[in-house]
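Fresh eyes needed here. Have a critical look at this protein's tokenised backbone.
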Amino acid sequence: MLAFPGLKRQWHRMVDIVVPSPDLFLREDAIRGGMDLLFFANTRHLRRADEKLAELGMGRAHHRVLYFVQRKPGLPISGLLAILAITKQSLKRVTHDLIARGLIELRHSQVDRRQRLVHLTEAGSTLERQLFNELHGSMAQAYAASGGEAVKGFWIVLQHLIGEEGCEQFRAVQSCK
């Protein structure tokens, strides 16, 4: 018996995949199932990176800073605050720790000397790359197993979840390279 009425199982690459019925996707059980999946995907996907960070005495907040500074080098502190949606106090605690560990550095802007821009050091870049490599394989495997149309749908759903402000930040991070 399935836990969610209206959901069916599909076998795909040795994984028992549960999907909502196409005509019942707006029912509460399908919405709760999607929320469950977001939670489990986040915790399971990040587990290996979390373990590596824990060995170094750091956590997920450190990883988020390293990740977005790598994605957008020279990001102002205010931009990092907006992306992470955390308080100045929380960011200050994490950035001070990362600076003390020699993983990030703050540089004054050439345009406005009052503005401080965040950059990874060589050690920070190396650590961020190691963490990314821990996550890359599982993400690529999930993408490959799901196919291009499913990945497109995944991106669409997530963009609707993050709203317009999140989409603006997402587009800015995507266009930084």
